[in-house]
Input
Amino acid sequence: MSPTHLGEQDASSAHRAAFIETQKSTEFQELRSRLRRFVFPMTAFFLIWYAIYVLLGAFAHDFMATKVIGNINVGLVLGLGQFVTTFLITGLYVKFANKVLDPRAAAIRLTLESEAS
Output
């Protein structure tokens, strides 16, 4: 192996070790924890909400066919509610990420990059 190739291997090993140390850091663990505390409950909420909608559609035909206004029925309202919920969760996540996750991730990245220099 050439000396240049050995130097590249050493640098790669050093970068790998730095990444592993970063993953073990309190800051990174807190970032992951914050992300999970948002994502898991939102995912559970949406899946339950979607399952209820599907089950109502499959087993509660009369309820879903109940007219609300004119030809608009409960099934249509709940179906449109799925879209509204999706956009709402997306907006909440973007706001959460901008306020909580991104500043922490940027600080971790800055620390990692400054150590690599």
Observations:
- The chain has one domain: 26-116.
